[in-house]
Design brief:
CATH architecture of one domain: Orthogonal Bundle
CATH topology of one domain: Tetracycline Repressor, domain 2
CATH superfamily of one domain: Tetracycline Repressor, domain 2
Helix content: 55-70%
Order of helices and strands: HHHHHHHHHHH
Strand content: under 5%
CATH class of one domain: Mainly Alpha
Number of strands: 0
Structural class: mainly alpha
Radius of gyration: 19 Å
């Protein structure tokens, strides 16, 4: 039988995030994390001083991933609408690859210094996207009737909701869901050729 590899801080954070995503951060205890990791609480405290340190690491992972998307060449160069399409697509992709991290981020409330900082960084990302929507409006690619801040919230409200219902191995795969989100955001339900009722 192969010996289990000792936990390092990254593997421990992975386990903690799965527990936080399943039970909620406030509803999860260090006992729950230790049980899921198959180690003692003392083993956890060897790596971190408190549960919030694991939360902070997870929130940082999620937010760093979102801001890394905004730094990709396709998100920084070209027409604003193409950059926006890229960001929306990549955020949906990131939701599937970082499901526990983003689940915790999207559910967190600003009730401590760590969570307040995370919520503020998340709002900064929303403002970045709202600025891109505003630019796409000025380029004539998006109707000027949409409020950019509201449009950004609605777009990410839709993609963020994936953490509430998506389960790997379900009927719809990540590529199909990403395409559906993009179609809804950029083409709408009516779509080309649909007549008014």
């Amino acid at each position: 039988m192969e010996a289990r590899k000792p936990y390092d801080i990254d593997r421990l954070t992975d386990v903690a995030l799965r527990v936080f995503a399943e039970r909620g951060y406030d509803g999860a205890s260090m006992d729950d994390v230790a049980r899921a990791a198959g180690i003692t609480k003392a083993g956890i405290y060897h790596h971190v001083a408190a549960k919030e340190a694991l939360l902070e690491r997870g929130l940082r992972r999620a937010l760093d991933a979102l801001f890394a998307i905004a730094e990709e060449p396709e998100a920084r160069e070209g027409a604003a609408i193409r950059r926006l399409e890229h960001i929306v697509h990549r955020v949906v992709e990131a939701t599937f690859t970082l499901l526990p991290e983003l689940t915790v981020l999207f559910r967190v409330r600003a009730n401590s210094p760590v969570t307040r900082e995370a919520v503020e960084r998340r709002r900064a990302f929303d403002r970045l996207v709202a600025g891109l929507i505003r630019q796409a409006q000025s380029e004539g690619a998006i109707a000027a009737t949409f409020d950019p801040a509201l449009a950004s919230r609605l777009i990410f409200g839709m993609s963020n909701s994936l953490v509430e219902w998506y389960h790997p191995g379900g009927q719809l795969g990540p590529a199909e869901i990403a395409a559906a989100v993009e179609n809804l955001v950029f083409d709408g339900l009516r779509g080309p050729g649909a007549g008014a009722v």
